[in-house]
């Protein structure tokens, strides 16, 4: 269900886009098996792990439910996994739902009223919850109470419903869309960052051990370097490389085997997939590096403008291959180099008209 809110660039998960439109049941089961179960097993996010560990240890010593937790950041970095770890560390059950699934206050009331004492409620994409449900959540988080409205019009009656102490774990890819009254009710907020290649190598080695895949350090480094800083993508690339190694070779994943496998799946050395390269090639070959409008660029690659803006552009911008300017999208020098193309030699006046960034300012004087 849709909430009517614009979708974040991060909400279009590149892990799904890289290899398959949606993970089948077997892939989902494997992903669940690869999830760490305790904080000590969780790789990366050192600051968030340390802070969260203190929150959980203090709650256990007090014998009370910990403060509500908000986890923000791009998809695939471990927000759902951390919510399950919180429940495991507290030895408590966990209830999992999502913001788009809660469209009415009654939906939330039904969930809250069935919680047991100390239970963890994980609410994914909490920023996409409906406004009436959001307002009901304020009282539930602060006072462990909700008012259920019975009837309509002048005869409507509010029946107070007491709730057992519980811990809400909210996850969002767009923390800025959370209203301040909701954000302020979380006792702990952790922001998840993209992983460094060395951390992803550890993720790949751990997952390879669980999947019984023989992999050497160079092979793990090759997969990690193409994983966009995201463990979920690293795990999915590992599974596809495993398939390639088992079918066409002896099963050992080396650097050469990993590179050849990912070439088959159209994932290049920087982690760009088919759509990413199509956007760059259109920008460079058809429009001379830009600037070009979003809608024109989308037509050139045969995609919707929203797909280009929300799915391809965030990674290209983060990699320094594409820039958004007041006049449109432009390719950077790194984009020309990555595709092995030579940029056209434009006069200085033309470069200024295109709004190329020079000396920290836009050439037309805009910051």
**What portion of the residues fall into strands of 2 or more residues?**
5-15%
| Secondary-structure element series | HHHEHEHEHEEEHEHHHHHHHEEHHEE
DSSP E strands, number: 11
Secondary structure tally, helices: 16
Distance between the termini: 39 Å
Give the number of domains.
3
Which regions are unreliable across 5 or more consecutive residues at pLDDT < 50? 1-12, 19-23, 347-367
Helix percent band:
40-55%
Descriptive report:
The protein has 367 residues and is an alpha/beta fold. The protein folds into three domains: 157 residues, Rossmann fold; 68 residues, Orthogonal Bundle (Helicase, Ruva Protein, domain 3); 89 residues, Arc Repressor Mutant, subunit A (Orthogonal Bundle). It contains 16 helices and eleven strands. It has a five-stranded parallel sheet, with helices on one face. A two-stranded antiparallel ribbon has the order 4-5. A two-stranded antiparallel sheet has the order 8-9. Helix 10 crosses helix 11 and helix 13 packs across helix 14. The longest helix is centred in the middle third of the chain and has 18 residues. The N terminus and C terminus are likely disordered. It is found in: Cytoplasm.
């Amino acid at each position: 269900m849709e909430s009517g809110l614009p979708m974040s660039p991060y909400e279009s998960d590149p892990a799904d886009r890289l290899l398959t439109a949606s993970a089948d049941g077997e892939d989902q089961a494997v992903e669940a098996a690869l999830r760490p179960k305790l904080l000590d097993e969780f790789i990366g996010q050192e600051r968030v792990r340390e802070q969260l560990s203190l929150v959980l240890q203090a709650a256990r010593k007090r014998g009370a439910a910990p403060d509500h937790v908000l986890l923000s950041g791009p998809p695939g970095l471990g927000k759902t996994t951390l919510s399950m770890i919180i429940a495991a560390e507290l030895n408590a059950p966990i209830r999992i739902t999502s913001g788009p699934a809660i469209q009415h206050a009654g939906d939330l009331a039904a969930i809250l009223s069935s919680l047991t004492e100390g239970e963890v409620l994980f609410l994914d994409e909490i920023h996409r919850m409906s406004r009436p449900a959001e307002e009901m959540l304020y009282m539930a988080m602060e006072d462990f109470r909700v008012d259920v409205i019975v009837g309509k019009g002048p005869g409507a009656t509010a029946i107070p419903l007491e709730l057992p102490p519980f811990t809400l774990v909210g996850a969002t890819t767009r923390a800025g869309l959370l209203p301040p009254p909701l954000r302020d009710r979380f006792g702990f907020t952790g922001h998840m960052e993209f992983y460094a290649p060395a951390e992803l190598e550890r993720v790949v080695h751990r997952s390879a051990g669980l999947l019984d895949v023989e992999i050497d350090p160079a092979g793990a480094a090759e997969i990690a370097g193409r994983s966009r800083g995201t463990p979920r993508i690293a795990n999915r690339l590992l599974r596809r490389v495993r398939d390639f190694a088992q079918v066409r070779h002896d099963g050992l994943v080396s650097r050469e085997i990993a590179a050849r496998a990912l070439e088959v799946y159209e994932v290049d050395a920087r982690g760009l997939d088919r759509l990413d390269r199509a956007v760059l090639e259109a920008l460079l070959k058809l429009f001379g590096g830009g600037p070009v409008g979003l809608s024109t660029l989308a037509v050139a690659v045969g995609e919707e403008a929203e797909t280009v803006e929300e799915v391809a552009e965030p990674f290209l911008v983060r990699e320094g291959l594409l820039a958004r300017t007041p006049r449109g999208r432009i390719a950077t020098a790194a984009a020309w180099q990555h595709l092995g193309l030579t940029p056209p030699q434009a006069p200085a006046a033309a470069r200024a008209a295109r709004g190329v960034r020079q000396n920290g300012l836009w050439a037309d004087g805009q910051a």
